Amino acid sequence: MAARLSAFARHPITRRVGEAVLTLLGVSVLTFVLLRVVPGDQITAAYGTAAGDLSPAQVHALEAYYGVDKPLLVQYFSWLGGVLTGHLGVSATSHLTVLSMTAQALPNTIELAVLSIVVGLVLGVPGGMLAASRPGRARDQVSQLTSLLALSIPSFLLATAVSSWLANNLGWYPNGEGYRRLWEDPGLNLEQMLLPALVLGISIASPVFSTTRAAILAVRAEDYVRTARAKGVPARRLQVRHILRNALIPVVTMSGLQFGFLLGGALVAEQIFAIPGIGRQVLLGLNQKEYAVVQSTVLIIAAMFVLVNLLTDLLYRVVDPRVRVR
Amino acid sequence: MPSLGDAPIPLEEPVNKPAPGRRAHGKLSAASAALATTLLTTGLLAGCGSSGSGSSGDGNGTLVFGITADPTQMVPWTSTSTQSIQVLSQIYSPLLNTDEDSVPEAGLADLPKVSADGKTYTFTLKKGLTFGNGSALDSTDVKYTYEKIMDPASSASSASYFASVASIDTPDKQTVVVHLKQPDASFVSGLTLVNTAIVPSDVPVKTLETKPVGSGPYQFVSRTPNESITLKRNPDYYAGTPGAAKVEFRIIPDDQSMVSSLKTGSVDVAIFDNPVTAKTAESGETSSTPVDSLSYHVLQLRASSPVLSNVNTRLAIQCAISRQDVIDSAALGAGEPTGPITSPEYRSDPDDQPCPDQDLTKAKEYLAKAGKPNGFSLDLMTSQGLYSTAVDEAQNIQAQLAKVGIKVKVETLDSNAYVQKWLDADFDAAIALNGGSSDPNTMYARYFTSSGSYNKVAGYSSPTLDKLFAQGIATTDTSKRKAIYEQVSKQLVDNAPWVWLFTPKDYIVANKAVHGLEARTDASLATLWKASIS
What residue in B sits closest to A39 (Cα-Cα)? Predict the structure, then answer.
């Protein structure tokens, strides 16, 4: 029995799941501590300097209202207990549960992340192929320069410049209309997603471009490509089936990572284009020092990230027999 | 823009809150306080040929008002953020209104009859007042609201307005009698604010947090957090028929995004505190109207910190600073030099101070008198994120003071850290944007009387000031009060506990489909209901 238990504990999958749980616990402790280390609390956030006019009795009432009158350990464990039983807390500002706020915000963030990745791949992969087709030549240098530019322009600057230009010259700025969800008004929703997805997509296209270019060059030098060519595989088929397919593996890995980051909320784009996503939820929570909102939302974001990583790991075991050893 | 209530406050997100008990204001704020000095029919109307005030009431349009953040409070007496005050001033009515000169005038009730001893205020409510839910608004609701505000459990930001109240009687449904412990000349001005607005006594506060019910020009319809708040016309509004069928407060966090939204017509009205942004928002379809503000930018010196304890060091700082230079460099010219009091009826003469203009020779004389002929080192705290000009003001002052050998070290803090240090009085000098008020006692008694709630922060008091403030609050005759506050103002500039810099401007930008929008001081939205949209 004990042997079986220890075998279970030592199983790679158990170990990975255990690590994931520990990571999340670490994240929760870190968020909890950081929130309380920075100056100010929910009362000063809500009242500003006017907090100085609150009588001690008023301050006590507020501390009880915000639940910050209890010892820190009690605060942490009562929050954690809530999370484990599905109660993520309530926002004192909107009076909504964090769960329902997240249910509102997360789909917008996921949609934006998917669209941005699509834009990044559509721009980056063909660009990388183009550059790799004649390394060192003009088209390669021009593409690399463009990619460097795309990487260097701060996205907030690009976002502001593009949207002002469109508003001034074409009278078009769909993000000024109230936000519509995909299922409420698909047309307007996609219009509203266009600019933020482009801006984010352009910044993602750059690493996609470099990865694609490097991977194609590397794969092209592989023995099996030379063999295929020697066997007389037609050029087009060689490019797509033998080179691109294998070169895309690192691109997919990298895109997955970028996707993970985007799920954490593309704060700048959400802020500038008034997309009510998960990044703004965290920012507003931070500004208002809504401890429960920030702690729970960060935990959800971390859980998604960990989950995506865990799935990738497990997937590798299925795909690549070499990882399955031990 | 910042602050409300005489205290510097976070603007955007941490928001401006009016200090409890003070006139709130900031970007827009003090909505119902309506401290208005100017009443312009804005240029917006010009192109449209509609008459400035009053609304026809036949408008069926939705007026979209752009705000940069979600309101953080939805119960009037807790409201401190600019956005809360803007939204709640449309849903609720305070007992009294203010005219365009910020003087209290009749609202739900007529102006009160005050007893000879100045301790009994009798208010008569208008007939037939109702709340949005149809229930009658009578003296019970007024008493209920004010007692709630005075109850510490409510943590009302407006509690200090009621500090002199002993009891409230309601002899009949239309009469409210307020008994004060001692005369309080500033009592009435507090009753014009959104955070003293009347709430229905028969609706639980918990319900009001999510579904506000008031007697204002518009009624609450729906709210999507971080996106919008929609209101509809209150057909029974006591002061007239609101001009737009609906008002939507739409949240657009980014200023440039707000500008684009105004230009493309998806947002009808928005308010900016940054003159450059306001300028970019002007186009063929929009116009921008600057409005004065009662708030003031100030260099707070703490006389109780050792480095500034000698009055001559503080006067040296006052003389070394050109206020116009601060305005030109930090606020791009958008502001007026100011003295301590900005209340329209009691305004200080900005030139009545030891050095009305920069005078480096005099500054050096004061330094010599203070025994520091070669200057000294000074730590100056400023904030990032509270309002747009804070850091630039600090840097400009740093450069100006360097000319007389005062070496300023600027410490830039994020808004929460700044507020915390400010409240703890943990600084020598600070750049602040404080809220003003139509009442001078409300503006300064809390800072410069020895028992004031912010005296530790201000760092200065004197028996003379204590006496003057006590006289000021006990005197109801305006001209006699004026003489008293002139002395207060003189005491303040002669002792230079602070160096008063300038009053800023707000910019109301609206598209030309909006008619009848009044541009009031502090960009108050108290008369937004008169605006309609074509």
Answer: B417
